[in-house]
Amino acid sequence: MLTGFDPDRPGKHFCEIAVPQGAGPGVVAESLCCIRNGDGPTVVLTGGIHGDEYEPQIVLRGLAASIAPHEVTGRLIIVPSLNFPASQTGRRIAGADGKNMNRVFPGNAGGTPTEQLAAVLGQQLFGLADLLIDAHAGGRDATVVPMIFGFSNDRCKVGPAALKRIMESWGYRYIEHVGGIDTTACGAAFRADIASIEIEGGGGGRLDPSELAIMRDGILRGLAAAGVLAPRLTPIAFQGVHLSVGAANQVVAPAAGLIEHLCRIGDIVATGQVIARLHPLAGSTADAIDIACPKEGHLLRQTHSVHVAKGQFVANTGSAMA
Ligand SMILES: [Zn+2]
Description:
The chain is of the alpha+beta class. It has helices at residues 54-66, 84-87, 113-125, 160-169, 185-191, 209-225; strands spanning 2-3, 11-18, 29-37, 42-47, 74-79, 131-135, 142-151, 174-177, 195-203, 241-244, 250-252, 257-261, 268-269, 274-279, 289-292, 297-303, 307-308, 313-320.
């Protein structure tokens, strides 16, 4: 699975994550980059757990190529496209087993291809990590504001106060507070007493240069705040908001139909405000159904799909915390 990896080797080296048997067409391996320089924290930076989230994969490949060992204190491990069988086909999940990688952590070295690749992170890299940073994006089906959330407890080497400081250094406007899911990369790391951060941003089936820059700059600031990378950018004071996001913030389609968004991500919306219309797919009426915001806050994410099924995700808000 992971060959040529020497976590104690000084300097920068690339090694290979090999594809499990039958995981996907044509693709044999993905690179893992390990940069080691002296004593300091170990930060593991992952992208591409969902294959259609391309912003993190581009940004992380660029960082792996450009970061020199003298910039690092400690150890920085970068995996740009962990779920590369999915990435190579432009899909959120790999076709070989149809499993959502972000629901199978810490993985299973004897399991399906997706579970085996998850185990590279969850079983081989978690043991080295003081902090996991897992980068996501909106993918083909959603657009999302740049935002960040994380998990820590007093048993983690990066404790709750340090994690808050690192997240606020990112320069993102939105820090989410969410209930964790144990089988995500960040959830599984937290269960293993490793502090974890997940970031989001972009998507919508296209690459926006500004989203790439926001993600790259945020990661550079975050790595500097974590003490593993010399600062390349001037730190900026936190001017964002802490938001709570729960089940009450979720908006789903009341029926199958065609979604017309009436607001943009980043807008502040009120409880009861009509934020989208659902147009009928068929029949003699042209009447649309108004979709009201269930809980006030900042509009964080919207479906990019016009056609939605009953119960399908439409949008979600985040409500400012006191
Ligand atoms: Zn994702």
